[in-house]
UniProtKB/TrEMBL annotation:
PANTHER family: FE-S PROTEIN MATURATION AUXILIARY FACTOR YITW
UniProt name for this protein: MIP18 family-like domain-containing protein
Location of the MIP18 family-like domain: 13-86
One of the Pfam families matching this protein, by short name: FeS_assembly_P
Gene3D superfamilies referenced in this protein's UniProt entry, alphabetically: Fe-S cluster assembly (FSCA) (3.30.300.130)
């Protein structure tokens, strides 16, 4: 059981590393630091579900960004499948950004 927890934790860290390689094209900060990723779920079958949002509902990358997230997470060896669910509840705000993102954008 402890090994499963470790694998899930390790996989979660790998997923976060992958998410940090995906950038919002309008903002030079990765989607993880921007606070667009609300949750990452990994089940015992190594299937991943990512709950994320976009900066606005009519975001120009609304069609491509979730697909890019899905494809990059699926490319991890340990991942059997990945699904992205978009939500606007709660709506994204600058408060969700990490300190690093705010610093990068000159907001601190």
């Amino acid at each position: 059981m402890a090994e499963e927890t470790l694998n899930t934790e390790e996989l979660g860290e790998k997923i976060v590393r992958v998410l940090k390689t995906i950038f919002d094209p309008e903002i030079p900060v990765d989607i993880y630091e921007l606070g667009l990723i609300y949750d990452v779920f990994v089940n015992e079958d190594d299937e991943v579900k990512i709950l994320m949002t976009l900066t606005t509902p009519n975001c120009p990358v609304a069609e491509t960004l979730p697909k890019e997230v899905e494809d990059k997470v699926k490319s991890l060896k340990m991942v059997k499948d990945a699904e992205v669910e978009i939500t606007f509840d709660p709506p994204w705000s600058q408060d969700l950004m990490s300190e690093e993102a705010k610093l990068e954008l000159g907001m601190l």
